[in-house]
Amino acid sequence: MAAGFIFATGVENSYPTIRSGTHRVDEMEKCGHYTHWKRDFECVVELGIEFLRYGPPIHTTWLGPGRYDWEFADLTFAEMKRLRIMPMVDLCHFGVPDWIGNFQNGDFPDLFAIYARDFAARFPWVQLYTPVNEMFICATFSGRNGWWNEQMTSDQGFVTALKHLVKANVLAMQAILEVRPDALFIQSESSEYFHASSPAAIKLAETYNQQRFLTLDLNYGQRVNSDMYEFLMDNGMTRDEYHFFLNQHLRRHCIMGTDYYFTNEHRVYADGRVTASGEVFGYDEITRQYHDRYQLPVMHTETNLWEGPTGQEAVDWLWKQWANVLRVRNIGIPILGFTWYSITDQVDWDSALREDNGTVNPLGLFDLDRNIRPVGKCYKQLIKDWSTVLPAQSHCLVLPLDMPDGDNAEPDSKAERLRRHAVRNIGRTGGARRGPGPGPDRSPGPPGGW
């Protein structure tokens, strides 16, 4: 079937390690998903949502090369299929299993590709994937800011994590396509912008504004400029590694997911400090910059805001983000969907998961008792109001999707999938994290940390 505009949410499944790799922060556990997963899926259906960003916990599923514990994945994916929820499968969300170590491990990309292929073979009805979530943020927080996983604070740590994350994403796409030739990949990536606070800060801000594109440049095989090429070469990337990315041709399978939070824009000072600027340009302008660069279909893949004292704060942010989505659509950029992330409140994102305090962050459509929040009610109404309007007035592309068909769903034949694959070319269009609260800015900082 063809799908019009996608309204989505997600189950927060971050699982980085902290404390020099000795302690894992598992958001599925913190948010009660392992206990309440059936109720969480019911909440999705209650809102009228058919698409869910979701992934199995990599650290308990992937036990070693070619070794897996599929029990929880089998249960959850069978239930989503029964409920006719289309998962956008998030295979790596800020962490790796203990046996791999961290993102400095050069074996990770090839091993991850095998995991992705084996997942796709086990769940052949799944069509939408985000193989590696927010590659730029993961490389920054792990390799440059010293917050997660390898907890390094250097440009070389950043570039090493970045090249391994992107190579893992590319190899995973190739592996999944071997199993499911009509798979579509939604690169959920943080859309960033760095504002110079003074003329003396312009050069540094421009450098950060070039670096923000590095993960997607490599992922889409796009040549970087000479400054960024020197930066990559000076910090551990080889010419052969760079040309590996240039020789990939996967754009036609991709949708560019752009995540936007209140903390995605930054203020850069001449002394090297970077602080949160708050919303200056907004989602529509920054998404236009990303689309101008890559000329790919777009989806708003993450946003939220703390509910606040009255609940109206999150409601107002929802409507502001939706107005931005409509603005993007109305200027001729093919935008395919919108996501409030996540279905429930989250825990400890006020410290960017650097501390295990058990602090509940009221960011969800439902609270952790699975009671709907005001923003959940408004999102439900928004979906109801706009679902019939957008297909009739759409300037966006229509995706060829095989939606789950309940208990009787059977995967299409390989021949049929190949037929659709042959007529689809979504990548040649040509045009027409967390909410703020107590704690640090979620944004990436300068080399060496804050």
Notes on the structure:
39% of the residues lie in helices and 16% in strands. It is α/β, with parallel strands linked by helices. It has a single domain, classed as TIM Barrel. It has an eight-stranded parallel β-barrel with strand order 2-5-8-9-10-12-15-16, surrounded by five helices. The longest helix is centred in the middle third of the chain and has 25 residues. It starts with a strand and ends in a 27-residue tail after the last helix.
Considering the chains and any ligands shown, give keywords for the structure:
TIM Barrel; eight-stranded parallel barrel; 450 residues; Glyco_hydro_1; alpha/beta; hydrolase activity, hydrolyzing O-glycosyl compounds
Question: Averaged pLDDT, please?
Answer: 90
CATH fold-level topology:
TIM Barrel
- The total number of structural domains is 1
**What is the CATH superfamily?**
Glycosidases
Strands of the biggest beta sheet: in what spatial order?
2-5-8-9-10-12-15-16
Report the CATH C-level class: Alpha Beta
Would you tell me the structural class of the helices and strands?
alpha/beta
GO molecular function: hydrolase activity, hydrolyzing O-glycosyl compounds
GO biological process, one term: carbohydrate metabolic process
Region (Disordered): 401-450
Biased composition (Pro residues): 437-450
Topology at a glance:
Blueprint (H helix, E strand, L loop, with lengths): L1 E2 L2 E5 L6 E2 L4 E2 L2 H4 L2 H14 L4 E4 L3 H4 E3 L2 E2 L2 H12 L3 E7 L15 H15 L5 E5 L2 H10 L10 H25 L4 E7 L2 E4 L5 H10 L2 H6 L6 H9 L4 H8 L7 E6 L5 E4 L5 E3 L6 H12 L3 E5 L9 H19 L4 E5 L6 E2 L12 E2 L12 H13 L2 H4 L6 E2 L13 H10 L27
Parallel strand pairs: 2-5, 2-16, 5-8, 8-9, 9-10, 10-12, 11-13, 12-15, 15-16
Antiparallel strand pairs: 1-19, 3-4, 6-7, 13-14, 17-18
Pfam families: Glyco_hydro_1
GO molecular function: hydrolase activity, hydrolyzing O-glycosyl compounds
InterPro entries: GH, Glyco_hydro_1
